Amino acid sequence: MMVPSLKLPDLIQEIRGAKTQAQEREVIQKECAYIRASFRDGDPLQRHRQLAKLLYVHMLGYPAHFGQMECLKLIASPRFTDKRVGYLGAMLLLDERHDAHLLITNSIKNDLSQGSQPVRGLALCTLSTMGSAEMCRNLATEVERLLLQESSSYVLKKAILTAVHMIRKDPELASIFLPPCSKLLHECHHGKAPHSLLQVWLWTDIVKNKPGAPAHRTRVVPQLVQILRTLVTTGCSTEHSISGVSDPFLQVKILHLLRILGRNHEESSETMNDLLAQVATNTDTSRNAGNAVLFETVLTIMDIHSAAGLRVLAVNILGRFLLNNDKNIRYVALTSLLRLVQSDHSAVQRHRPTVVECLQDTDASLSRRALELSLTLVNSSNVRTMTQELQTFLETCPIDLRADCASGILLAAERFAPTKRWHIDTILHVLTTAGAHVQDDAVANLTQLIGGAQELHAYSVRRLYTALAKDISQQPFVQVAAWCIGEYGDLLLEGSCEETEPPQVEEEEVLALLEKVLQSHMSLPATRGYAITALMKLSTRFQDNNRIRQVVSIYGSCVDVELQQRAVEYSTLFRKYDHMRAAILEKMPLVERGGPQVDEEAKESKEVPQLLEATVPDTAEPQATKLLDLLDLLDGMSRDSQHPVSLDSTPGNALVHPLDLPCATPPPASIPNLKVFEREGVQLNLSFTRPPGAPALLLVTVTTTNSSGGDVTHFICQAAVPKSFQLQLQAPSGDTVPAQGDLPITQIFRILNPNKAPLRLKLRLTYNHFGQEVQEIFEVNNLPVETWQ
């Protein structure tokens, strides 16, 4: 005999009493079998009871899809007990992914038009929960009718929520609900329309999803202003009052809607200006509800066309928020001030001391927001004090904030530095405090800054040497110090500095310090490269060359390939090219930070006559040594053939080599341009010119453009020529070609062809494009005849 099916309370009790998951599954499988059998028998009196048990099983995570059709049958039933369970089942078991949900459209329509108040509420709840866009379009007129004619507050609230759901599903339905929304807004005051919050919510969704809808804007804004003014001045019933604030939820919703309506609309903004000032001054700030209303008021003032005095009032409110003990309120204030600082910078500046105090907050999110705001408040008038505060914070800030703080200080110093000396001191302080957290370009920026400040060379090298003697752990700082000592080490020995009594430094101390950097386990390979190059530079500034040669030779067998290569090259320079070492290792030329390339070209163009008339042999040597690094890509050609013809250092042969002529922009020539490469939008064009007075020298300008939709990164162009030619590759203008034909990359090849032989090039291109690495090697044999004749 079959055991009868369990009732819902008994089923719940038995499932909860299962000691293992296997027992629970056994109970549920057995009961699901009874439920299926009952559905097949078609007993209408038991259907809603069986479906209720199935819904509980569904809530536990077990499959219950076989009850979907039973939901439709129960919804179509005239009995309220069946409809109640049927609509609940539809909300749980049906959604837009199942076509079965469309089958209840007619049942919902009938219930909305003819059903009782509870039945209409069930239909509206179901429609607002799982109604698809198609269902919403079919039933929108029924919901509109309820909004216009329904007198029951219970049903009207549900109808408003359903209308919100419909507009979100299909924004085109917003125009249907405009007439009922206008009618409901007239009743939007307590006592006559307790659903006023939902009405404002509905209006907000209409305006958001249909921006052109406020043709009613001129009527809506004054009504909303009047409702909010009533709430602020006369208050409301204690039922809707929270901590003495009249219905803060409704106030926040109205302010949010006013912000949307007043955005980019000056007339509406003027209508609400007085009200916003009244709300901002009369709202109690001792309770969190009042703070919520005030914050929404500030957001509204920020977004609309508000008066200048009103915006200052909003900033002052946020300033008071910064003094609040609640961390959430302080965080909100910092975030809002960060948005306001661009448009109302002077008003936000008044609260700078409070913002700086927030840097020391123990809450990580607060200190991060305070740091971002503090960096935006830095300007030319307060850069010294703000930088000092930020440097103090940098010394004690959490590790995860040091990178942002260091980068912010460096950027502020770059933009607002009052003097070069102050700029250098600021960067040095950052490097010594948080050198491991600065960006990669900090080293290059500081070296360029020091190199361009000739009057501060002695001061900088002494500061760097003194700090390096104390600490060699901050690698970017050590790199800058090594570079500066290598360039201006002779100034250390002279003692020429602005200090009254500069400490005396001996050659041995400087060399020992650089050796310490080379031998330290904390030194990165790049840092060791800076140190060994500094030692090499000092070989032309100090007397003790033997010690330097010994140190350099030791690293000729270093496991680090880069360092080994440098050591071998430097040793070769000592051994074979000692007569050229002084010229090669001379001090770097001064480079202006504004435009190094332009200034260098202008300087070189002025030096052309002097170079052509030079009679001193040393002037040619630094340029000639650039020919020692030639790349031979042509198969079968010996590397030795690429070396340049050595230049005699006697006065009789001291004329400048044609390859050493400066690369100032030559006048236009008649040699036609040539396109040699094109792939996926990346194009390579060659243009040719000959400098005046050097018929054997050809300047080839390689221009790389990118018309595709993705940037080309890590672009490298290498070239080789036959052994009868001499080739020199100059540094390209960059290694990234922006997308959509933006700034191209240019590079100059200087080719010497003394024998007037036919010219051919072999090019190798490597770059990354659309996330893939590309390498192309090809030969250019169709060069114009004018390039070699």
From TrEMBL:
PROSITE patterns: GAE. It is a peripheral membrane protein. Coiled coil: none annotated. One of its GO terms (cellular component) is synapse. Residues 669-784 form the GAE domain. InterPro entries: Adaptor_Complx_Large_Subunit, AP1_complex_gsu, ARM-like, ARM-type_fold, Clathrin/coatomer_adapt-like_N, Clathrin_a/b/g-adaptin_app_Ig, Clathrin_app_Ig-like_sf, GAE_dom. Keywords: Cytoplasmic vesicle, Golgi apparatus, Membrane, Protein transport, Transport. It is found in: Cytoplasmic vesicle membrane; Endomembrane system; Golgi apparatus. It holds the Pfam family Alpha_adaptinC2. GO terms for biological process: intracellular protein transport; vesicle-mediated transport. Its main location: membrane. It comes from the Eukaryota. SMART domains: Alpha_adaptinC2. The keyword Transport applies. Belongs to the adaptor complexes large subunit family. This is AP-1 complex subunit gamma.
